[in-house]
Amino acid sequence: MLEHDATINPGNSGGPLVTGDGKVVGINYAGSSETSQYYAISYLEAQEVLDQLQSGEDVDSIGVNGTAVSDGFVSGIWVASVESGSPASNAGIQPGDIMTSLERLILATDGTMSDYCDILRTRSADDTMAIEVLRYATEEQLAGELNGDELEVQFSFAQEFADDVGGDTGSTETAAGYAEYTTLTDDTGALQVDVPAEWSDVSLGAWTFNEQDVGVSIVAAPNRESFYGTWGTPGMFFGASSSLVGQTDINTMLDSVDFSESCSYSGREAYDDGLYTGQYDLWTDCGGTATSFFVIAMGPADQSFLGLVQIQVVDDRDLEALDRIIQTFQVVGTLP
Q: Span 107-125, mean pLDDT?
């Protein structure tokens, strides 16, 4: 991708980017007059697919004309226009939407379209791909699939339980939420999840279940000792194991986490994030505080592993972190 300062007006996408001496160096595709930033695809990349383009075949396209946006709070691909009849159009994506994740990978965190393009290059345009969209016009978060289920309003733990869990401290910092998130990967490269950057006390190691090392895990909190030992510090645990398959099940895993002496039990509900399914328990009013504790036991459709996610919610901004963790936790590599 080339960034340049030659003005691109509406309708210029697909036209050549030409130097002062008449050489074509790229194909214009997007721009912003407000920031004077304009973009083109390098001619070197275009040459590799020129025959396909000349035959009228789309290459690595889902039908979106977009650009990367990132303001510290929201990142993604802002949709300028959508091609009729394309995978994006059929999924319900509209101009003005921001595609925030594709295949559970948060997009444009570095302010570029590189992750978005990398995903499309490793997929076929007619593959089914999970997608999440932020629609400012209706203040909705939507989830669905390209070449699959159309976009629907996304279930949000934060919105569903906002009146029941967490405790607003009343501070401006709390109301504003977390300023930055970071992506963690365990030592084996099998697990991945986004957590607030403030949760910098991190452990990447074995998952011990019933006093046995059964898999790998990620633990993150502002202070892990306080997270483990008190109800006043937020944090999360994410573990996954292939060896537990056949030895235990989702309900047994949830039953092993019992806070009945310290918390009120709100019950067990079905869990489905589009990638994994299972059950989750919610514990509230823990230790006589407004702290809540979510426990999710889940696995993929092929039953190749079992996973456990635990999240301690202390105040309102932890609800935001709760949703981000649930949207991004994933087994991305081979479990040991």
A: 87
d(C-alpha 291, C-alpha 308), whole Å = 20
Residues contacting 250, CB < 8 A, separation 6+: 278, 279, 297, 298, 299, 306
> 46-55: string of b/e by CB count within 10 Å (b at 16+)?
beeeeeeeee
Residues 63-84 as b/e (b if ≥16 CB within 10 A, e otherwise) read bbbbbbeeeeeebbbbbbebee
- Ordered structural domains, the chain, with CATH: 1-57 (2.40.10.10), 60-154 (2.30.42.10), 161-331 (3.40.1000.10)
- Whether residue 169 has pLDDT greater than 50: no
Residues found in the chain: 336
Contact yes or no for 253/240 (Cβ under 8 A): no
Structure tokens at 210: 């019933």
3-state secondary structure (DSSP) of residue 174: helix
One-letter amino acid of 201: D
| Tens-place pLDDT, residues 154-168 | 777 777 777 666 555
Contact 81, 95 (CB under 8 A): yes
Q: What is the CA radius of gyration of the chain?
A: 22
Dihedral of the CA atoms 77, 82, 87, 88 (nearest 10)? Answer: 40
CA 282/CA 264 separation, integer angstroms: 9
Distance CA 139, CA 125 (A): 28
Q: Is the sign of the CA dihedral 298, 299, 303, 306 positive or negative? A: negative
DSSP lists the bridge partners of residue 41 as 27
Write out the H or E segment, with its range, that includes residue 87: helix 87-91
